[in-house]
């Protein structure tokens, strides 16, 4: 295979710093193997925008190239179409979507501009791998500039049923643009089949079997490739000095009580208010947990300039106050809500001392926190994952306690089951999930996509 070129909204970090997430880890290995190039937005808004100078940097054989955006680009492309239109629609939240036609124009414009800047850097045998909902139309832009390299795409978030997507103005135009890719990858079988169904029902495509669809004389691969984590590395994090120091602090505070842990960016897709209410329900329905079980929620703020995100944060502050006011005792506070982030190693330590990992998104592409929680447990005495059926992770983790996040009653019952689960059952469930996480890890994920890229035939 030739050189790998990765395109994503944000570039890096390359090092395994405290903040590097699963995506960076998976991509960096693949990039290093081929001496690749990583291209995207610099994170800066400037007057010249994408017409300005390209920032380049080479670290450990990987070339990075970044361009700016103008404020107008940022408003229409990033804060507009990507995060006010596509994010809610693709998460089945039509009620929160903002359909402003100027957003789509700005989005296509930025995709064109970024493609124009990338084009001179492309070599003949490069494989170009584009990431996520910011760049649905990027391949169409490149093809219009006569780029003939293999183009692969991976969508990190859900792809909704055609009945939902049809509400997006010009949905057919957007999906048609996606068909300029040779391969379109999704997190789950459900997402991949939703996409193929749209192509077949709305665009006259023909199912060719094995995840291939034929449309307008071309065959496109549209399959599921569930993203994994570096399970081996993550399982070792709790043993690092940084993690141990913080685990001791936390264990001292807990004083033998049990902890439920949640870790999510503040986002309406994550089901946080529903989760807080389910925890309140646990204390109501199973009062023996009062004074004995607490919930910690780590919630780094994101996209905080958007109204929907401001509203959710306010709702969570209120719910925390409500539950704590109602149930707190002299030596016990039910909910600890922290709108901050922790280094990854510390996070792994927090997972390990928590008896229950609570992951209850209303919709989620995959959800890496579910996988990280399991990877961080000790084989001798593992905690229990309580997982929403609407997280992509649920498709490959049926040994978790699977719940419907919309039902406070059901989540409370799931929590009670997790809290009281006998050791042997906890071990059995954990071992199966951990083995699978090690097998289907981040490296396996990018490898399986690259294997399918090799089957692409361009004429
Ligand atoms: C999108 C899709 C899909 C969180 N808090 C801290 C912290 N994190 C890390 C977690 C995890 C990552 O951020 C979050 O990943 P998720 O998968 O849970 O969710 P999204 O951010 O919405 O990601 C999702 C993913 O893309 C990958 O394809 O799974 O469905 O929505 O790695 O650990 N990291 C640190 N401190 C924190 O406080 N260091």
TrEMBL record:
Position of the signal peptide:
none
Top-level lineage group: Bacteria
* Pfam family membership, one: Glyco_transf_20
Q: Which InterPro entries match?
A: Glyco_trans_20
Q: Which family does it belong to?
A: Belongs to the glycosyltransferase 20 family.
Query: Under what name is this protein listed?
Result: Trehalose-6-phosphate synthase
């Amino acid at each position: 295979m030739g050189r790998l070129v990765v395109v994503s909204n944000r570039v890096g970090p390359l090092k395994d710093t405290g903040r590097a997430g699963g995506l960076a880890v998976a991509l960096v290995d693949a990039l290093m193997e081929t001496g690749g190039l990583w291209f995207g937005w610099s994170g800066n808004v400037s007057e010249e925008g994408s017409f300005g100078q390209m920032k380049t940097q080479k670290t450990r054989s990987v070339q990075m190239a970044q361009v700016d955006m103008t404020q107008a680009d940022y408003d229409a492309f990033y804060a507009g179409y990507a995060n006010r239109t596509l994010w809610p629609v693709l998460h089945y939240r039509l009620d929160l979507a903002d359909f402003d036609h100027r957003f789509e124009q700005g989005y296509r414009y930025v995709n064109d501009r970024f493609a124009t800047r990338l084009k001179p850097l492309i070599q003949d045998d490069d494989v170009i791998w584009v990431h996520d909902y910011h760049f649905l139309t990027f391949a169409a832009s490149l093809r219009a500039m006569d780029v003939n390299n293999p183009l692969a795409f991976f969508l990190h978030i859900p792809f909704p049923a055609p009945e939902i997507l049809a509400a997006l103005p010009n949905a057919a135009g957007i999906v048609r643009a996606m068909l300029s890719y040779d391969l379109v990858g999704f997190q789950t079988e459900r997402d991949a089949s939703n996409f193929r169904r749209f192509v077949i029902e709305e665009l006259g495509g023909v199912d060719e079997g094995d995840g291939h669809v034929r449309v307008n004389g071309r065959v496109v691969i549209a399959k599921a490739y569930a993203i994994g984590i570096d399970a081996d590395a993550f399982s070792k994090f709790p043993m690092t000095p940084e993690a141990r120091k913080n685990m001791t602090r936390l264990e001292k505070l807990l004083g033998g009580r049990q902890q439920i842990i949640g870790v999510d960016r503040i986002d309406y897709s994550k089901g946080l208010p529903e989760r807080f209410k389910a925890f309140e329900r646990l204390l109501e329905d199973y009062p023996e947990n009062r004074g004995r079980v607490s919930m910690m929620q780590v919630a780094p703020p994101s996209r905080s300039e958007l109204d929907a995100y401001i509203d959710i944060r306010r709702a969570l502050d209120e719910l925390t106050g409500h539950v704590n006011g109602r149930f707190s005792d002299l030596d016990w506070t039910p909910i600890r809500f922290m709108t901050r982030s922790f280094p990854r190693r510390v996070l792994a330590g927090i997972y390990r001392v928590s008896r229950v990992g609570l992951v209850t998104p209303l919709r989620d592409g995959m959800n890496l926190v579910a996988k990280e929680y399991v990877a961080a447990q000790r084989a001798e005495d593992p905690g229990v994952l309580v997982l929403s059926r609407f997280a992509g992770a649920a498709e490959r983790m049926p040994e978790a306690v699977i719940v419907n996040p919309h039902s406070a009653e059901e989540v409370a019952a799931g929590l009670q089951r997790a809290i009281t689960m006998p050791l042997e059952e906890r071990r059995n469930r954990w071992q199966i999930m951990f083995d699978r996480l090690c097998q289907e890890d981040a490296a396996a994920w990018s490898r399986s996509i690259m294997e399918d890229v090799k089957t692409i035939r361009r004429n």
